[in-house]
TrEMBL record:
<dbReference type="InterPro" id="IPR003593">
    <property type="entry name" value="AAA+_ATPase"/>
</dbReference>
<keyword id="KW-0067">ATP-binding</keyword>
<dbReference type="Pfam" id="PF00005">
    <property type="entry name" value="ABC_tran"/>
</dbReference>
<dbReference type="InterPro" id="IPR003439">
    <property type="entry name" value="ABC_transporter-like_ATP-bd"/>
</dbReference>
<keyword id="KW-0547">Nucleotide-binding</keyword>
<dbReference type="InterPro" id="IPR027417">
    <property type="entry name" value="P-loop_NTPase"/>
</dbReference>
<protein>
    <submittedName>
        <fullName>ATP-binding cassette domain-containing protein</fullName>
    </submittedName>
</protein>
<dbReference type="GO" id="GO:0005524">
    <property type="term" value="F:ATP binding"/>
</dbReference>
<feature type="domain" description="ABC transporter">
    <location>
        <begin position="2"/>
        <end position="225"/>
    </location>
</feature>
Amino acid sequence: MIEIKGITKSFTIHGKSLPILNVSQWQVQQGDRLALLGPSGSGKSTLLHLLSGVMQPDQGEIWVNGLPLHTYSESKRDRYRAEHVGYIFQDFHLISSLTVKQNVELIVPQDWTKKMTKDQVDYWFERVGLKDRQHHLPSELSRGQQQRAAIIRAIIAKPQLILADEPTGSLDWETAGDIMSLLLDICEVEKMTLLTVTHDLHLADMYPARVHIQDINELPRREAV
Ligand code: ADP
Ligand code: MG
């Protein structure tokens, strides 16, 4: 479902090109749930950005669900992201002026009827434990509750790939464990592929599998810039 072949990615920093990723071969099967580990600055977020189509590799191939992302224009990648990827951020990225229900409704597919939308919204708010919180603004919820709402937004349209970039990085440890197990459960039941960046080894241990970015990135280890 994810296949990477010979990708490189560099950034130009202070006029100098700095290589960040060099992955010759990497595959993730549909339905795998994988924790991605590695030190700060080692290219974990960059890898997620490549898989979500926010960035393009300098060279090489990225296939997701059989789609050749590396050949896509920016607008085609935007459409790919909307249809195939759910993204979960460390700091939630909820729109502060909208209720959490409105935040979720923003990404509901246009062909859903009103009834289908309501049924799905009700189902998911109950499923994540926010049954009576649909009409709250993000600021009226705890950080853990905000991340639960952000999880609904990521999964409600049933994308096949969920990318989570340190989703528990700003939560206390107990909430972090709850959020991680919620995410793992949902992706298992819905048969979604889950790739989660975390540097918490205990949370990574909850995953059926772990990968260290330096096992797939062939660049020598270096200090973060
Ligand atoms: P990680 O998520 O593992 O901490 P990142 O993928 O965010 O690492 O970043 C890897 C390296 O690439 C860092 O040194 C960072 O400064 C650099 N980098 C990331 N994105 C950009 C960008 N858009 N422009 C320039 N440098 C970047
Ligand atoms: Mg990062």
